Amino acid sequence: MGKNLIQQRRGRGSPTYRSASFKFEGEVRLYSQQGLGKVIELVHCAGHSSPLMRVSFANESVPVLGFAPDGIKVGDFIESGDMASVRAGNVLSLRNIPEGTLIHNVELRPGDGGKLVRVSGASARVVSRGEEGVRVLLPSRKEKLFLPACRAAVGVLAGAGRPDKPFLKAGTRYKKMRARNKLYPRVCGISMNAVDHPFGGKCSHIKGRPTQSPRSAPPGRKVGKIAPRRTGRKR
């Protein structure tokens, strides 16, 4: 009969493949509060690659979480709103951010709390502002057009240089992946046994069967290229 594939075991919803979100500090969104806030604490969260900060606003009893920009420290003040100054950590609409400014945690749609440029050391740059929208240069070197009402935080995210240090051994990477309960190491199907994967068995790295599967294939066989429109190198 064989065993369930990894994607089938994930679908059960058991804690084996579920992220331990109860250990995380919480969700990070752009501040919905308007006005002046004070940084009361810098926080490490296993669920985020960038350092976080707790910001206390005068009109809120509970501090809110935000991404810590480079150069921020405890006791600094953060402004949120269209009247805020262009300073690291402040949150403004893209229509109020001048060209050439480095930003992070950019909203895709107004009010979604920020979806892009959220990894440590990352930043985007406002290229131009016009009637059609605000053009932003993303870390992928692609330019994207945003609505002027979308908000973003000013500055470069802290934690730059994190990927520069090598892991050196597999055990260190295992602990990193374990913090977010990610499956590690990942083994390709052709290196598995026949009971674990349709590509497994026989000699290693020899599939012995096509890597395409139809859309109507049963769950235990739907692996590889699922109903591809085309295969092979594009010439």
Features:
235 residues; 2 helices; 6% helix; Ribosomal protein L2, domain 3; SH3 type barrels; 6-stranded antiparallel beta sheet; 4-stranded antiparallel beta sheet
Blueprint of the fold:
Blueprint: H1 6-10, E1 35-43, E2 52-57, E3 64-67, E4 77-80, E5 91-93, E6 102-104, E7 124-129, E8 134-137, E9 143-146, E10 151-154, H2 170-179, E11 212-213, E12 225-226
Radius of gyration: 23 Å
Number of domains: 2
Taking strands numbered 1, 2, ... along the chain, how are they ordered across the largest sheet?
Answer: 5-10-6-7-8-9
Largest sheet: 6 strands, antiparallel
Describe the protein's architecture and organization.
With 235 residues, the chain is mainly beta. The chain has 2 domains: 1-18 and 181-225, Ribosomal protein L2, domain 3; 25-159, SH3 type barrels (Roll). Helix content is 6%, strand content 22%. It contains 2 helices and 12 strands; from the N terminus they run αββββββββββαββ. The protein has helices spanning 6-10, 170-179, and strands at 35-43, 52-57, 64-67, 77-80, 91-93, 102-104, 124-129, 134-137, 143-146, 151-154, 212-213, 225-226. A 6-stranded antiparallel sheet has the order 5-10-6-7-8-9, with no helix packed on it. A hairpin with a 4-residue loop joins strand 7 (124-129) and strand 8. The longest helix is centred in the C-terminal third of the chain and has 10 residues, at 170-179. The chain is elongated. The model has no long low-confidence stretch (mean pLDDT 90).
